[in-house]
C-alpha cells in the first residue's frame, strides 16, 4: 500500500463516508474513490462494503487498520523532520508532557532555556502518557514529562520529583472552613477524580484502603484540568494532582490533601535514541524547573 493509499484508507476508516473522507483530505470524491479502488486491486481484497450510504470496513480492513495508523504516524513524523531540516531547524527541541507538568513545569524550563539559547526552536506537545511513549519511540519528541514511572522497558524514566493531591472545592462548600483535608473528610462527598486503572487512581485507592476509607468518584476524568469546570458547576469536589496552579482558577477553593499518597514526576527518554546537545540542555532545565516548582509548593503548604 502506497503512502497516498494509506492516507485515504485511514481517512475513510475514521470518517465512515467517502464525502467526509474527501473533505478531510481536501480532494474530490471521485479521486478518493479511485485511489481506494487501486489500493484494493493491489492488495487483492476488498477494504469496504457499502451499507446504507456508508462504508463498512471488512474484517481485513479492521485487521490492518492499527498497523496502518502506526505506519502513518511514522510517515508524518518523517515529514516533520525533513521539513525541519529543510528549514534549517537543526536546533529543534521537542518535549511532550502530560497536562499538569506541561502547565506547571515546562513554562519555567522553556523560559530559562530560551534566555540562554534564543536561536533554538522549541516545540511542546501536551498528550497522555501512552501518546508520549509513542512520540518518544517515533522520534517526534526527544523528552517527555509524565506523572508515572511505570513505563515499557525501552523508555527510560528518571524520577525528578513527586507530588501529592489537592482538593478543589466549589465556592461556598462547607469544607472550606478547614485549612487542609484528609481522605476521611471526603467520605460521603460527590467526588470528581481519575478514572480507574490510572496511576493517580491506583495511588488513591491504595491509600484509602490503608486508612480504612471507602471512596468512589461519581464523575471520572482522564486529565486533572478537566475537573475545573465540573467543580465550578457545583458537581462535586475535585480530587486531583497538586501540581497544577489551581488557585489561578476562579470559582473554587483549593485545600491540600494531608496524609495522602504521592506519585512521581518522571522525565522520559527513549533508550534507543540518543539525545542531542540541545536536548541534554533542555533536560537539565526541566530538572531544575521541577525542583523549583516543588519547592514553591512546599513553601505554600
Roughly what fraction of the amino acids lie in strands?
15-25%
Structural class: alpha/beta
Radius of gyration in whole Å, from Cα? Answer: 23 Å
Approximate shape:
globular
Largest sheet: 5 strands, mixed
Q: First CA to last CA: what distance? A: 58 Å
Count of helical stretches: 10
Strand order of the largest sheet: 4-3-5-12-6
Count of individual beta strands: 12
What would you call the quaternary organization?
A: single chain
Uncertain stretches of 5 or more adjacent residues: none
Order of helices and strands: HHHEEHEHHEHEEEEHEHEEEH
Summary, kept brief:
This protein has 301 residues and is an alpha/beta fold. The strands form three sheets. A five-stranded mixed beta sheet has the order 4-3-5-12-6, with helices on both faces. The protein has a five-stranded mixed beta sheet with strand order 9-8-10-7-11. Strands 1-2 form a two-stranded antiparallel ribbon.
Description:
By secondary structure, the chain is α/β, with parallel strands linked by helices. It has a five-stranded mixed beta sheet with strand order 4-3-5-12-6, with helices on both faces. Helix 8 links the parallel strand 8 and strand 9. Helix 1 crosses helix 2 and helix 1 packs across helix 3. The longest helix has 28 residues. The chain starts with a helix and ends with a helix.
Amino acid at each position: 500500500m502506497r503512502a497516498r493509499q494509506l492516507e485515504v484508507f485511514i481517512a475513510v476508516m475514521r470518517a465512515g463516508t467517502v464525502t467526509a473522507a474527501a473533505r478531510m483530505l481536501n480532494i474530490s470524491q471521485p479521486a478518493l474513490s479511485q485511489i481506494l479502488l487501486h489500493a484494493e486491486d493491489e492488495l487483492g481484497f476488498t477494504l469496504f462494503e457499502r451499507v446504507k450510504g456508508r462504508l463498512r470496513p471488512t474484517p481485513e480492513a479492521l485487521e490492518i487498520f492499527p498497523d496502518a495508523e502506526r505506519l502513518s504516524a511514522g510517515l508524518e513524523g518523517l515529514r516533520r523532520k525533513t521539513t525541519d531540516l529543510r528549514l534549517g531547524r537543526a536546533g529543534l527541541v521537542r518535549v511532550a508532557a502530560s497536562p499538569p507538568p506541561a502547565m506547571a513545569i515546562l513554562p519555567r524550563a522553556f523560559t530559562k532555556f530560551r534566555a540562554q539559547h534564543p536561536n533554538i526552536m522549541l516545540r511542546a506537545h501536551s498528550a497522555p502518557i501512552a501518546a508520549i511513549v509513542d512520540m518518544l519511540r517515533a522520534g517526534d519528541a526527544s523528552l517527555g514529562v509524565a506523572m508515572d514511572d511505570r513505563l515499557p522497558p525501552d523508555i527510560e524514566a528518571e524520577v525528578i520529583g513527586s507530588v501529592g493531591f489537592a482538593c478543589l472545592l466549589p465556592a461556598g462548600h462547607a469544607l472550606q472552613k478547614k485549612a487542609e483535608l484528609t481522605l476521611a473528610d471526603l467520605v460521603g462527598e460527590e467526588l470528581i477524580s481519575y478514572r480507574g486503572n490510572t496511576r493517580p487512581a491506583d495511588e488513591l485507592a491504595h491509600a484509602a484502603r490503608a486508612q480504612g476509607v471507602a471512596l468512589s468518584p461519581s464523575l471520572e476524568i482522564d486529565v486533572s484540568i478537566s475537573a475545573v469546570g465540573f467543580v465550578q458547576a457545583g458537581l462535586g469536589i475535585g480530587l486531583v494532582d497538586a501540581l497544577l496552579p489551581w488557585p489561578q482558577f476562579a470559582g473554587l477553593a483549593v485545600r491540600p490533601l494531608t496524609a495522602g499518597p504521592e506519585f512521581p514526576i518522571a522525565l522520559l527518554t527513549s533508550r534507543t535514541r540518543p539525545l542531542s546537545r540541545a536536548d541534554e540542555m533542555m533536560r537539565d532545565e526541566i530538572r531544575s524547573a521541577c525542583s523549583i516548582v516543588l519547592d514553591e509548593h512546599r513553601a505554600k503548604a
